[in-house]
């Protein structure tokens, strides 16, 4: 029989994972095999800058936590697994995708966006979405284009009326 102290420690880790998953808007599981300590520190810093956290857990503990939450991702728990948590749906995906451009050993496994399982291909598509600030800039530009175009049309119409008089 397993030591009760060890079982209690494992249960605490499982509860920690469950709590982080429940609190996060996005959770991304990825393989970090082959990264040096310096590269891991660099990745951790970039994730922190994006208001995300990153932690490595044993696959068995991740599996137990996900099973408790009825999230079917066990088939993705092969090899070393790191988990990024964030309150932003896209931020950790964008950071990891950008990091993967220069560190090809990092690979996305699976994600949870608003508690929904998201496959690797969808995560890669989400990584191409502009940032929140970029989207707001596009929205503002689109909203400013309408009155600008109206002003140009009214000016041209006024000039045409002046020519006819």
Report what the structure shows.
This protein is α+β, with helices and mostly antiparallel strands and 165 residues long. It folds into two domains: 4-129, Alpha-Beta Plaits, CATH 3.30.70; 130-165. Helix content is 58%, strand content 16%. It is built from six helices and five strands. Strands 2-3-1-4-5 form a five-stranded antiparallel beta sheet. Strand 4 and strand 5 (116-119) form a beta hairpin. Helix 1 packs across helix 3. The longest helix is centred in the C-terminal third of the chain and has 33 residues, at 132-164. The model has no long low-confidence stretch (mean pLDDT 86).
Question: Can you tell me the residue ranges where pLDDT is under 50 for at least 5 consecutive residues?
Answer: none
CATH class of the largest domain: Alpha Beta
The rounded distance between the terminal residues' Cα atoms is 101 Å
Shape: elongated
| N-to-C series of helices and strands | HEHEHEHEEHH
Radius of gyration: 24 Å
* Relevant CATH superfamily of the largest domain: Ribosomal protein L10, N-terminal RNA-binding domain
Helix content: 55-70%
Q: Which fold does the CATH topology of the largest domain refer to?
A: Alpha-Beta Plaits
What would the average pLDDT be, to the nearest integer? 86
**Percentage of residues in DSSP E strands:** 15-25%
Question: Major sheet: size, sense and barrel closure?
Answer: 5 strands, antiparallel
Which secondary-structure class do the elements indicate?
Answer: alpha+beta
Question: Would you report the number of β strands?
Answer: 5
Whole-number tally of structural domains: 2
Strand order of the largest sheet: 2-3-1-4-5
Count of alpha/pi helices: 6
């Amino acid at each position: 029989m397993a030591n009760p102290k060890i079982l209690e420690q494992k249960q605490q880790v499982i509860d920690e994972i469950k709590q982080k998953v429940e609190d996060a808007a996005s959770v991304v599981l990825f393989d970090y095999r082959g990264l040096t300590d310096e590269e891991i520190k660099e990745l951790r810093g970039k994730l922190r800058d994006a208001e995300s956290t990153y932690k490595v857990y044993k696959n068995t503990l991740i599996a137990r936590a996900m099973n408790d939450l009825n999230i079917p991702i066990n088939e993705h728990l092969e090899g070393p697994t790191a988990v990024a948590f964030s309150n932003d749906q896209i931020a950790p995906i964008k950071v990891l995708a950008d990091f993967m451009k220069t560190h090809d050993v990092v690979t996305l496994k699976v994600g949870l966006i608003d508690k929904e399982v998201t496959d690797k291909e969808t995560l890669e598509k989400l990584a191409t979405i502009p940032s929140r600030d970029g989207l707001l800039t596009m929205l503002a530009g689109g909203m400013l284009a309408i009155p600008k175009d109206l002003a140009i049309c009214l000016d041209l119409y006024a000039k045409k009326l002046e020519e006819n008089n």
